[in-house]
Amino acid sequence: MDSMTGLKRTNYCGDLRTSDIGKEVVVCGWVAKQRDLGSLIFIDLRDRQGVIQLAFDENVVDKQNFEKAFSVRSEYVLMARGKVRERASKNKDIPTGEIEIEVEDLRVLAKSQTPPFEIVENSQTGEATRLKHRYLDLRRPDLQSNLLLRHKIVKITRDYFDQQGFIEIETPMLIKSTPEGARDFLVPSRLHQGTFYALPQSPQLYKQISMVAGFDKYMQIARCFRDEDLRADRQPEFTQIDLEMSFVDMEDVLEVVEGYVKTVFKDGIGVDISTPLPRLTYKDAMSRYGSDKPDTRFDMELYDLTQIVKDSGFGVFKSAVDGGGCVCGITAKDAIKTLSRKEIDKLTDFVKGIGGKGIAWIRMTPDSTTSSFGKFVSEEEMQNILNTANAQVGDAVLIIGDTNKSKVLSMLGALRLEVAKKLDIIPKDKFNFLWITEFPFFDYDEEMGEFVAMHHPFTAPMDDCLQYLETDKSKVNAKAYDLVLNGVELSSGSIRITDPELQNKMFTLLGLSQEEAQAKFGYLLEAFKYGAPPHGGMGIGLDRLIMQMVGCETLRDVVAYPKLQNATEPMTQCPSVVDDVQLEELGLKIAKSEK
Length: 595
Fold this sequence. Notes:
Elements: E1 24-36, E2 40-47, E3 50-57, H1 63-71, E4 77-86, E5 99-110, H2 127-132, H3 134-137, H4 141-163, E6 167-168, E7 186-188, E8 196-198, H5 204-212, E9 217-225, E10 237-246, H6 250-269, E11 279-281, H7 282-289, E12 303-304, H8 306-309, H9 315-322, E13 326-332, H10 341-353, E14 360-364, E15 369-371, H11 379-389, E16 396-402, H12 405-423, E17 433-437, E18 442-445, E19 450-453, E20 480-485, E21 488-495, H13 500-509, H14 514-528, E22 535-541, H15 542-550, H16 580-586
């Protein structure tokens, strides 16, 4: 192996341009490709900033350097000194495609085995293999670009909140286990055997205590942990842009976050976001889109057919209405070519897979109007449905009915997204932000037969709903708000309760005894006795934000060292067993599961 003695890097490969022609430079990186043309050898050298072409002419460079260039293979680590010159054959696909380096001195700093997969953008290699060799996967230009953007966004974030008067305060990683809606990761204590720390699901209670402490405006780039099943936009550990503010109402919090959104998109990726951001109440979002995190980049809104079909001859419709439910639909415009009978059958299976009974449908071809229920309804009823659906020739109408209204809306919301994907009508270059406000404080759980909390117990109810707390929980809304981006919940927050009397009442309504509340939240309740200012805040998912900015399908493409869907990390093979000595120090034994 060669050494770097006498050479020092002057430029990153991807930073060189035509303005550098004539300069002597030293670059370092990994071999992306080597091309042997006999008396000419070209090497594409890659670093985190991009690729530059190294040129070796047998008639110009000395024999030793030419032989080195001949011997290198993919992923060898090189250092090269030479002059930047104009390329004879230009490559318009890369920023450095008009120049190359005429190499005078080549050093081979490290050799590489043949990689288990090719280091290219949009690799088709299986994810398990790539994550096992994540250090190779992370050399791919698309992943490096994502992580460089992440670094940039974090810097913009800190600068913005600093300019707004926020103070970054680090909160503990080892905390008291506190219910926050998901399962805690637990850490056994060696010094206090039989007791456990928890890893924070969020810094929620600490940031509220920071308000009691008088810091007024808190923020943190916070690591959070939730032991729950994974999906494309969820990891067991994630990063949150966490903030809390004193002496504010909801409008103040939303204004600060809208300023952040505008700044981070403009400075981060050069996109102008128009503010103020649009808003929808929870009720309107559900009735129009069937989701509390609707994707508004495309139309296809829901509509209610209940009154039209309440006396229908079609039993599915009538039984849904008679049972206190509803019948609603969506219209897929210009969809009949894509939504054939076979495709509608697939959509029916999709609805059944999420708990539905099926879909009633209408297809309007140029020749005729066909439907799955036409023979059971009158011409007038069918025409009224088509009028409400605003259906034209070429459209498909998809209808769901059920005795549970919220179930109908949710199923249609999911179906709306599935249809949009099939029709490929979701634009890729739009960023549609939306505030969802006036969330219900309680959600009715049909299995339990009672109302349960939708938010953590320190979320304040709206002032005009206080009268209904003990008489009609369905009418109680919360001072809670979510920020949605392209159908993804990006951020969630609320104004907090600081009045002890109201807080005790909420504990009772949520089914918590005073003893339970004290055991779980005692330290925060104690802090509130010493002058708690009105406060509120929210947490913005950094990983999801970056994911939306770069248009990735999974969080794993914007996190350096992610877990697989089964919560394992193939590279380090964790989680792993520990030896008996460690367990003994913690006072633990592993229970043998019965086969």
